[in-house]
Design a protein that fits this description.
The chain is α/β, with parallel strands linked by helices and 388 residues long. The chain is built from 15 helices and 11 strands. It is 37% helix and 14% strand. The strands form 3 sheets. Strands 2-8-7-6-5-3-4 form a 7-stranded mixed beta sheet, sandwiched between helices. It has a two-stranded parallel ribbon with strand order 1-10. Strands 9-11 form a two-stranded antiparallel sheet. The structure holds pyridoxal-5'-phosphate.
Length: 388
């Protein structure tokens, strides 16, 4: 198991707390305490699960981030507290002005706020399916709708098709959504395609480019879309601290866009970010060593696991993220249910790719558990599926 990062707790462990009180854990007292009967102190099944279902970072925040957050508890009772200049630090990180940045409690909130700000009644957001659905769902919540287009057979996004559909529906289109790299496939849209999209749709239509998995990409054809904002294009790029920085449960994400778009979004923003995550975010941007370690370790484990499945004859979609999709040849929902019996949770359904399983990359130990379970579920490799 990887020990580069250990589980840490904000307030220290129960044992440490007892130690501070001059006590030792019960076993050391010789009190002869029996284990609790079922139902009295149930173990938390969450902790036993290899959670490979939500594209999380299994290591959590780095030591430097934890130190920074722990030092921020003292601001718990304040409103206008020092926040490590998090907004300035994010702006600096991208070489933009603070007026180009809007922060939210996770980039999922940025996506929702974008839908509220840019989709009017009965307007459409154009994008592919399967993809991350928050924007499409938010659209239906504001009486707008999505026009979704299928992926190409190599699982890439058909940019020319998106251009055509956007032009054809110009009057109704409020926004275009591109998840890059895409969730759930892990496939990138090359920078040349992003530029072609921007050059060929009416320039007043905002384009939302969701770069939640940016930090894991190695494909040289990919590039962040932030430079297009600097060119003055109507582009909103979203980023999150949930993935590479391990802060999914703490909630911090942001959008980068021209100031006019940020101002429109501000109207719908509630200001839900707390003092701890602001300090954690600042430390995350500065802790390049931990970021590199998480990226390299995740990619190494992803490639090793995917290659093992390929060696067994399975198609694995080449991924540029902290997850991959494998063709199970039978309903992925059935395979998932079998994995749960092994205390391994893997991704949900992504219609229409219902016989593909999305697997998030956990620790080395978790990936071993995944492969052990896989080998029992598919004892004869690809032939076990009954497909082909
Ligand atoms: C593509 C994509 N965008 C956005 C998010 C939202 O992340 P968060 O709200 O934690 O920043 C996720 C989370 O899984 C995602 O996969």
């Amino acid at each position: 198991m990887n020990t580069r990062f250990s589980r840490r707790h904000f307030m220290g462990s129960a044992a440490a707390a007892l130690g501070a009180l001059g006590l030792r854990p019960a076993t050391a007292l010789g009190a002869g305490i029996r284990p609790p009967p079922p139902g009295i102190a149930p173990r938390d099944p969450y902790d036993d699960l290899a959670k490979l279902s939500s594209n999380e970072n299994p290591y959590g925040p780095s030591d430097k981030m934890m130190a920074s957050m722990n030092a921020a508890w003292k601001y718990s009772n304040r409103y206008g507290y020092p926040d490590g200049d998090v907004l300035e630090k994010i702006a600096e990180h991208h070489g933009v002005d603070t007026r180009n940045i809007i922060m939210h409690a996770g980039s999922g909130e940025t996506l929702k706020v974008a839908a509220l700000a840019f989709l009017r009644h009965e307007e459409k957001v154009v994008g592919v399916e399967p993809t991350f659905l928050t924007v499409y769902r938010a659209a239906s919540g504001v009486d707008a709708d999505a026009i979704t287009r299928p992926l190409l057979s190599d699982h890439t996004q058909d940019i020319d098709d998106l251009i055509q559909v956007t032009k054809r529906n110009y009057r109704d289109v409020g926004m275009v959504y591109v998840c890059n790299p895409n969730n759930p496939t892990g496939v990138v849209v090359p920078d040349a395609d992003i530029r072609r999209l921007l050059d060929n749709i009416p320039e007043d239509i905002p384009v939302l480019i969701d770069e939640a998995y940016h930090h894991f990409v190695k494909d040289p054809r990919y590039a962040t879309a932030v430079p297009y904002i600097k060119e003055g294009r109507k582009v909103l790029v979203t980023r999150t601290f949930s993935k590479i920085y391990g802060m999914a449960g703490l909630r911090l994400g942001y959008g980068i866009a021209p100031p006019e778009m940020i101002d429109e979004m501000r109207t719908y923003t509630t200001g839900t970010i707390n003092a701890l995550v602001k300090w954690g975010g600042v430390a995350a941007l500065e802790d390049n060593e931990s970021e590199a370690w998480v990226r390299d370790t995740t990619i190494a484990l992803r490639d090793a696991t995917a290659n093992e499945l390929r060696n067994q004859g399975f198609e694995v979609i080449p991924s540029e993220t902290n997850f991959f999709m494998v063709h199970t040849g039978r309903p992925a929902s059935e395979v998932r249910a079998e994995f749960r019996k092994h205390d391994v949770a893997v991704g949900r359904d992504f219609p229409p790719m219902l016989d593909y399983l999305r697997v998030s990359i956990g620790t080395e130990e978790e990936m071993k558990r995944f492969l052990t379970a896989w080998n029992q579920i598919f004892p004869d490799g690809m032939t076990t599926t009954g497909a082909r």
